[in-house]
Specification:
This protein has 194 residues and is α+β, with helices and mostly antiparallel strands. It has seven helices and eight strands. The protein has helices spanning 2-16, 76-90, 95-110, 118-122, 129-132, 142-152, 173-177, and strands at residues 19-28, 31-40, 49-55, 61-67, 70-75, 163-165, 181-186, 189-193. The strands form three sheets. It has a three-stranded antiparallel sheet, with helices on one face. Helix 2 packs across helix 6 and helix 3 (95-110) packs across helix 6. The longest helix is centred in the middle third of the chain and has 16 residues, at 95-110.
């Protein structure tokens, strides 16, 4: 089973990566436990390498999100947590709005101004109203999971937005007053950068 996990992650990495320079499996007592993947941006004459170490010893990595040569290795727990946020924050919104909410979470994990894990992004103080008001304990439906997987595949209708809110009902003055760039309305939400 561990070999299948390794193969799955390896194939996902290949499908999302640019040119693969080096792939090596580490073996401890005959069991593959990790994979080291190096990618090269072929346009970069200096051969700047992005090396990522993937620990797959517990077999929990189920998805890989790759954007601009940055990768996030997502567990089932991450996917479920994002789906909960999508359900709680965009219930009643169009499907594209659900994909957009999932994209904001992934964009934040990749952005150095935010925490580097899904869990830390979701539970960052005052980040999501559904966490503040306790509505994160919802059970997401299949449409929410589909939206998360769509975002993981790279469909980001927000143009890499880091924030969103509903201008009609938001009580946060910061959201109303902040200068927004690259804003886009999807359903009742406004997605933007600052």
């Amino acid at each position: 089973m561990k070999y299948l996990n390794f193969l799955f992650i390896f194939l996902l990495t290949l499908s999302f990566s640019g040119e693969i320079i080096e792939v090596s499996a580490l073996e401890l007592q005959g069991t593959t436990t990790a994979c080291l993947v190096s990618t090269q941006d072929s346009d970069n004459a200096k051969k700047d390498y992005n090396t990522t170490f993937i620990d797959i010893t517990d077999g929990s990595t189920v998805e890989v999100f790759n954007h601009n040569d940055k990768m996030i290795y997502l567990t089932e727990e991450d996917v479920y947590l994002i789906s909960q946020i999508v359900f709680a924050e965009s219930k009643g919104e169009p499907y594209e709005g659900k994909v957009a909410v999932a994209s904001v979470i992934l964009n934040r994990v990749l952005d150095p101004a935010f925490p580097s894990t899904v869990k830390d992004v979701v539970f960052q103080t005052n980040a999501f109203s559904c966490v503040l008001d306790g509505k994160i304990t919802v059970t997401p439906n299949q449409e929410c999971f589909n939206a998360v997987y769509e975002a993981i595949k790279g469909n980001d209708p927000t143009n890499e937005a880091l924030f969103f809110y509903n201008p009609t009902i938001a009580t946060c003055s910061w959201m109303h007053d902040i200068k927004k760039t690259d804003s886009r309305s999807i359903g009742q939400h406004l997605f933007f950068k600052v």
